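Please check this:
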Amino acid sequence: MTERTSDHESGRYNVLFISIDDLRPQLGSYGDKMVKSPNLDQFSKEAVTFNRAYCQQALCSASRASILTGLRPETTKITGMYQKGKPLDEQYPEAYTLPESFKDSGYFSYSIGKVFHQMGATSIGSDNIASAWSEPAWNPDVPAYGPNAMKRYHTKYDSLAMVGGDMQKLASIPKVTYFEAPDVSDHDLPDGAMADKAIEMINQTQKDGKNFFLALGFVKPHLPFVAPKKYWDLYDPDSLRLPPNRFHPINAPPYTILRDIGIYKYENGPKKGSKPTQEQAVKALHGYLTCISYVDAQFQKVIQELKEQDLYDKTIIVVYGDHGYQVGEHDSWGAKHSNYESSTWVPLFIRVPHSPMNGKTTDQLVELLDIYPTLVDYCKVKKPAYDLEGRSLRPILDADSVLKWKNEAFSIYPRNIPKVGKAIGYSMVTDRFRLVKWAAVDTDSVSYELYDHHVDAQENINLVNVPYYKSILDNLKRRMEAAY
């Protein structure tokens, strides 16, 4: 205990690093009126809430690779799922990951759940980067569905043998159900089991007298929307309101957002090429909100354990969504995969013990890329040999005395465009505008999108051809060209 107290007094904080898969800023603390998120809302009163945080790509694996290496997707070249079963450290050998920096600096580094997003032969989320963790990463051995759906699941898939071990063929089979509310306990599903394991590991580190970097990756509200019935019952489906902009952005190119993914992959979802029925749409929103409430409750169990162990004021806590999400926005259901605000805008909370900014919000433009240098700055752990491409948020967290932190935040998304081929969508958001440049990889083909958040916060009308915005567009193009 003496060693740990001395470490803390010298600035050696523990770190609880919580990622929440597919969580957009649909929380009470961000102004949402439908969701039941009392625990994250309470935490926002004890931490710094970043109102304008952005991911660097709206895809789990690419976003996490960026966050955990401190590099943009353009640098790592990881802009899709980890290909051919290769983990991040094989795909980008130069990577020196955030948990690795803590482990090499004497911390106990441990992974629970979906932290990186490794794709192996039989699983996703295995986090098999041995160099990052003090002990092998832990994933829950509990089913993803309740008992009834699992029976159907096993009848339908049973094993890879039914498709000759071919993962692509397996992926082409419609999945069982995109929503379920089984009458089970929290720990009978993955996120509840993860919270229990996090509590166990917090206790273990205290017995061992070690500082910890504990990475906890909740898997909900990612599809399928499965959570215990008591959370489903929090919501009256008749009171749920679908988004008003259930249409493709006006005057935007047709390829800017993907529609036939998400709930379309499930046997009770809409058929490819069709719109969801009202009932299917409401079920999707109901399920998404339910899963947020489920994770919110699991989050609180872990926070409460820190408080009971007298560690709350000795631990830096980071909570973030890895990217945004669409539940009907722009006619995209249960997906992300775009450069729009609904895909790139994320919730971010950071609590540094005794910070004068705790309980406050900031409207500074920040990127998830900034988390790595922030934690390195506070905890004085080993830095990578390369330059981190984000900036430490410490000036904001300590006082928010800076006039403007960043003028822009950047995201990208690749896309195969008919008659054009592979292209990259480069997105730049400012205090008022979003500019997206779609640039073909093998030709000179370029197209743009422009949105004015002062008059169109939902990004429903592409203004690129409106004469009033010509000089603004030219200026934003120059700013983007300077960055790329």
Remarks:
- The longest strand covers residues 409-417.
